[in-house]
Automatic annotation (TrEMBL):
Organism, scientific name: Aestuariirhabdus litorea
Annotated Gene3D superfamilies: Type II deoxyuridine triphosphatase
Protein name: dUTP diphosphatase
InterPro entries: dUTPase/dCTP_pyrophosphatase
Pfam families xrefs: dUTPase_2 (PF08761)
Length: 208
């Protein structure tokens, strides 16, 4: 529950950096969910029977993390605010129930089911998303670590002039994503200060 609560809080914070009244704007976050699902299949899954290929799990995981950003935004918007603890517990149990008790379907089929459910409800489909995680072999811990990493990097970029073009993406000859990957391996994601530690780690490496 704590991991989901943290992700929802971080999503609200990054959205408010861009638009303070983002919930009232009623953006179609659900649309980004199903389009990202389609992109994951088209770009990173072996669906083209007319040529040889293979699934690219590393890229698929990145797509799942992108979907999570849009899914959490849609969930908050559906609730009209960051859900209270009791609701978050229910949402977390809903997802964990899928991860613990269901058999995984194929990756492509799971993405298709997420897109289908999302198009039908135009809301946050948590169980369908959990089935994508199950198909990919992604635990809640892996989602949490990857999500927080991407979220904090996005916030760091915003804070250092990404919109105005002042942000430097190359640090010491390497992209910011590479520095993020190293920090994710070094830091303890179980600590309450994980997101803060990650931000400070990026700040310590960023060119002054």
């Amino acid at each position: 529950m704590n991991q989901l609560k943290t992700m929802l809080q971080l999503q609200d914070e990054i959205n408010r950096k861009i638009n303070h009244n983002w919930i009232e704007l009623d953006r179609p976050w659900f649309r980004a969910v199903w389009l990202e699902a389609a992109e994951a299949v088209n770009d990173h899954c072996d669906w083209k029977w007319w040529k040889h290929g293979s699934d690219n799990r590393e890229q698929i995981v990145l797509e799942v993390v992108d979907i999570a950003h849009f899914l959490w935004a849609q969930l908050i918007q559906d609730c009209g605010e960051i859900p209270q603890d009791e609701a978050v517990i229910g949402f977390a149990r809903q997802m964990q129930g899928v991860l613990d008790s269901e058999q995984p379907m194929g990756i492509i089929e799971a993405f298709e089911a997420l897109a289908h459910a999302t198009l039908g409800s135009r809301s946050a489909e948590l169980e369908a998303f959990a089935r994508v995680m199950l198909a990919v072999g992604m635990s809640f811990d892996e989602l949490y670590r990857s999500y927080v990493g991407k979220n904090i990097l996005n916030r760091f970029r915003q804070d250092h002039g990404y919109k105005t073009g002042e942000y430097q993406k190359q640090w010491q000859g390497r992209e910011d994503n590479e520095h993020l990957t190293e920090l994710l391996l070094e830091l303890d994601a179980s600590r309450d200060s994980f997101s803060h530690d990650l931000y400070q780690g990026l700040a310590s490496r960023y060119p002054k």
